[in-house]
Specification:
The structure is a single chain. With 449 residues, the protein is of the alpha/beta class. 39% of the residues lie in helices and 20% in strands. The strands form six sheets. It has an eight-stranded mixed beta sheet with strand order 12-11-8-13-16-17-19-20, sandwiched between helices. Strands 2-1-3-4-5 form a five-stranded parallel beta sheet, with helices on both faces. β9 and β10 form a beta hairpin. α14 packs across α18. The chain is globular and about 75 Å long. The structure holds cytidine-5'-triphosphate. Cytidine-5'-triphosphate (CTP) binds next to α16 and β16.
Length: 449
């Protein structure tokens, strides 16, 4: 950039008379002047650093809520991370922050609800929809979420969103009771089902005076999520068979034995693989989760059903990730009638279920196998043993006795061990982030540099 600085006076003189926010013009003029005056080595340097047109473009929709102030900081962070940002503000957002703030920070004109011809010619609303690499709405009010979920496009933001084919990230922020409202939750479920990414609001003090879930996450967290979603599609060509959730082993027509697995890790793995371009078959035990849009879902209950589904799909996949908490035992004799209550102690005999992953490991046929190791002690040693005995490429070990990590949690602190002996202990992170780490490790193992 020192090279550029030498010519900046000339550039500024030419561009000063124009609208200061017309960054495109400024870059064009910069290019011409630079080509006229720069020496060849400077041009080579310039070409290597000037990739503005290649920088991913974020269209950020800002809706009216007190959390708008965090969107200002978000824009600053995104620009700092070399992302191009175009902001669309709704009418109510204008009550909280001025467009000038976003314009100054993004270096781009801000689209508002005021449809005037000058704005239209400068911004081109459909262009905005087409040019987005990622569409983000932060903060997203209950109102905008309701409108999107119902297919309503009655203002600029919802119209541009309707026209975009880019992935969408929605970051809701509102009062806790609004957030818990079943209508809002149903709308979010609908958006998730069609493949929108939802960034869960944080918990804490809310502007309305309540404490609870509803805060817009910190701008740093939203920026991280945006960067994660912008990753390139480096899993194209992979067909992942992913298992998730618990099994249910029936005792009688009304009772079953199960475990605490929520399925969140397997579902996060499915979402991340889809986002990074892979095909996904998700074999899932019973969970309360929405299936990720784009995955082929096979729902099962028992370990025997899971085994049958996995073996049926195995030949067509390139890799298997067994994130399911497979039931190690099933009830030896399932009563066909409800077991009646009595005074005597009841003994239930359990017999072992087959080890699905071990079976796959004995018949590898060039497939990549990733297992999980849920441990409460001797984490690394036990995980290494599983890696060896099940003939795996990678094992993801986690201490399920730790609070805030593992079963039913949104977060996980795991250690990845691969067949070359490489071990990476990761700090506590969201299961979505961990899923990406697992795929990064998978790719590095597959194609070592
Ligand atoms: N697994 C499997 N079939 C089973 C049990 C486990 O495919 N019957 C898979 C799990 O999905 C996981 C890995 O094997 O990827 C390890 O599971 P885990 O429950 O940690 O260990 P187990 O092999 O069951 O051994 P233990 O319960 O004694 O730790």
């Amino acid at each position: 950039m020192t090279v550029l600085a030498k010519h900046s006076a000339a550039i500024n003189a030419v561009t000063k008379s124009r609208d200061a926010v017309d960054l495109g013009t400024k870059w064009a003029v910069t290019g011409i002047l630079f080509a006229m005056f720069a020496r060849p080595n400077e041009i080579r340097y310039f070409c290597s650093v000037t990739t503005v047109e290649n920088q991913p473009k974020i269209v950020l929709g800002v809706t009216g809520g007190i959390a708008c102030y965090k969107a200002v900081e978000l824009v600053r962070l995104l620009v700092k991370a070399s992302l191009r940002v175009r902001v669309i503000m709704t009418k109510s957002a204008l009550e909280f922050v001025t467009p000038l703030t976003f314009q100054t920070l993004s270096g781009n004109p801000v689209a508002t609800e005021t449809f005037d011809l000058t704005q239209e010619s400068q911004i081109g609303h459909i262009n905005l929809a087409d040019s987005a690499d990622l569409f983000v709405i932060a903060p997203a009010t209950a109102n905008v979420i309701g409108k999107i979920a119902s297919g309503i496009a009655d203002d600029l933001l919802t119209t541009v969103l309707m026209a975009t084919r880019a992935p969408v990230l929605v970051a809701p922020a509102m009062n806790i009771h609004m957030y818990e409202n079943p209508i809002l939750q149903e709308n979010l479920r609908k958006l998730r089902r069609i493949g929108y990414h939802i960034l869960e609001p944080a918990e804490g003090y809310l502007a309305c005076g309540y404490e609870g879930q509803g805060r817009l996450p910190d701008p740093e967290k939203i920026a991280e999520e945006i960067k994660r979603l912008l990753r390139k599609k480096d899993l194209c060509g992979e067909k992942f068979l992913i298992t998730a959730g618990p099994n249910r082993e029936p005792l009688d027509p009304v009772r079953y034995i199960s475990n605490r697995s929520s399925g969140k890790m397997g579902y996060a793995l499915a979402r991340a693989a889809l986002r990074r371009g892979a095909e996904v078959v998700l074999v899932s035990g019973p969970t309360a989760l929405d299936p990720p849009g784009g995955a082929r879902l096979i729902s099962v209950l028992t370990a025997a059903e899971m085994r049958a589904a996995v073996l049926k799909e195995y030949a067509q996949c390139t890799a298997v990730i067994m994130a399911a908490a497979v039931s190690d035992y099933r009830v030896a004799t399932i009563s066909d009638r409800k077991m009646k209550r009595g005074k005597d102690t009841v003994e239930v005999r359990l017999e072992p279920n087959p080890d699905i992953l071990k079976e796959l490991g004995q018949n590898k046929n060039g497939k990549w196998l990733v297992g999980f190791a849920a441990e409460t002690e001797e984490l690394t040693a036990n995980a290494q043993k599983k890696l060896r005995e099940k003939n795996l490429d990678m094992v993801v070990a986690n201490n399920v006795a730790e609070t805030g990590s593992g079963f039913d949690s949104d977060n996980n602190a795991a250690t990845i061990i691969d067949r070359t002996g490489k071990t990476r202990s990761l700090p506590l992170m969201s299961k979505d982030e961990l899923a990406d780490q697992i795929y990064d490790h998978f790719l590095a193992l597959k194609s070592p540099r």
